[in-house]
Amino acid sequence: MNCLGIDIGGTKVAMRATGEGPRTHDTAFRWPQPGGPAQDLDALAKGVEAVRDHWKEPIEAVGIAVPATLDSSGRVVTWPGRQGWTGLDLRRELHGLFPGALVRWADDGDLAALAEAHEAGCENLVYAGVGTGVGGGIVLDGRLCPGTARGSCEVGHMVVDPNGPLCDCGRRGCVQASVSGPATLRRAAALRGGPVDFAELREALERRLTWAVTAVDESCAGLATALTSLSEVIHPEQVVVGGGFAAGLPGFVEEVARRTEALARPGRPAVPVRRATLGGLSSLRGAVLLAQGAA
């Protein structure tokens, strides 16, 4: 079966076509700036047409990783990265691009989890991606949980501190309000007493400066707490931590693993925590798996 996986991101779109054999075709493009729904959809249509020019066989199934929140009808409820998409009937637009093909979509964090589980040969896995926000997904018995028909697994919106910092969603104490890249940088700036960008945080962390270590350790502790709570409910075999922010900071994943181990209780050993294997390709690989029917 000829399939197309599409990973829709905040700044770019990546696509991979696959067939019965090992041959694949990868391509990507950046969203137009400043952009808007009409310009974005035009760019997406041109990107799809470029794939068709190269991949002559008809595309039979499409899987799409989306960062936006969609309602049950496929309409965009919210997407902070491209706010103009709010209210867009994405289901209609996607089916219009691929008439006659099976079109499925899912949250990018869910599909990253699916891809990491498939890569590891692990049927029960939790994935957390730490970047601009905190995304994630759960795979149980080899399938996405709760499943594409019931919505996405919002690890980043687990409430871990009802009196914690305000989240973009309007609640207090969500995981991403204290663990995400921007949240960590804000904490680092407060501790340092001045602005901090990612490069400065990384360099200070390598030098083990107190303000940097404290800021990152608090994020690692918050993520370990959330992952431990989640593990008590679903009992995964592995926990995988990815995302650009986590991947870019030396020792971040290892500190999450150490703090998760410290939270183990008698009779319930901590679940192994490891670094993501696929990096920035996880959601795209998951989108291909979705097209192939693996979810």
TrEMBL record:
Signal peptide: none
Annotated InterPro entries: ATPase_NBD, ROK
Gene3D superfamilies: 3.30.420.40
Pfam families noted in UniProt: ROK
Similarity section: Belongs to the ROK (NagC/XylR) family.
Name of this chain's protein: ROK family protein
